[in-house]
């Protein structure tokens, strides 16, 4: 199988990252979609894999906003298109207006990777919680 990923991916293993997301554009028309919770399983500066209880369409004309609380920018709002869906699992590709936004996300991801290896709080970019097994999205779910 060919590897399609261009960006190094950070896998959160059993400590998934909690976030909020909502639909923000349909056919480039701004909308105010229902906000919901999501648990990010892995992330790169190109996209993410996450689970949510929201019923989201996989449609190239539908853009969602993923919101991450960070220590430097409150919050980091990432726009993305959903690329695939398997049950409540989704894959998204981030859309950046400026390459420096991708660079900033990559710095945050690298800092988080250091934190996950060392538990050194100085290297954590997120201020939001890691998902617990009792969160609304992960409640009672076995995750591989």
TrEMBL record:
Secretion signal, residue range per the UniProt entry: none
Domain PilZ: residue ranges: 3-102
**InterPro entries registered for this protein in UniProt:** PilZ_domain
Q: Which GO terms describe its molecular function?
A: cyclic-di-GMP binding
Pfam families reported in the protein's UniProt record? PilZ
| Descriptive protein name | PilZ domain-containing protein
